[in-house]
Design goal:
Largest sheet: none
Order of helices and strands: HHH
Number of helices: 3
Number of domains: 1
Distance between the termini: 26 Å
Oligomer: single chain
Number of strands: 0
Amino acid sequence: MSQQGEQLQERTMQFAVDICELIKLLPTWEPGPAIRHISWREFIKRAKLLSSPELPRLLQEALELRNIFGASGGTARDRQRTDFKR
């Protein structure tokens, strides 16, 4: 695995661990099916389920990782199309 790949893997693992820690701070009630239609990040923020100084950082990290993986998926699809045409 490349150094960049290893760094992304570590970053993703740390994000998962940080989210687990954040989940421990959430109230124990179940918000129900309406949550499926709302971004969980926005839901936590609007419902004021917790006030953690980590929340803004984790929201930003979630967006950045989503963008990285989205771009990576697009690159993989482009390569697959190029390889198919050969």
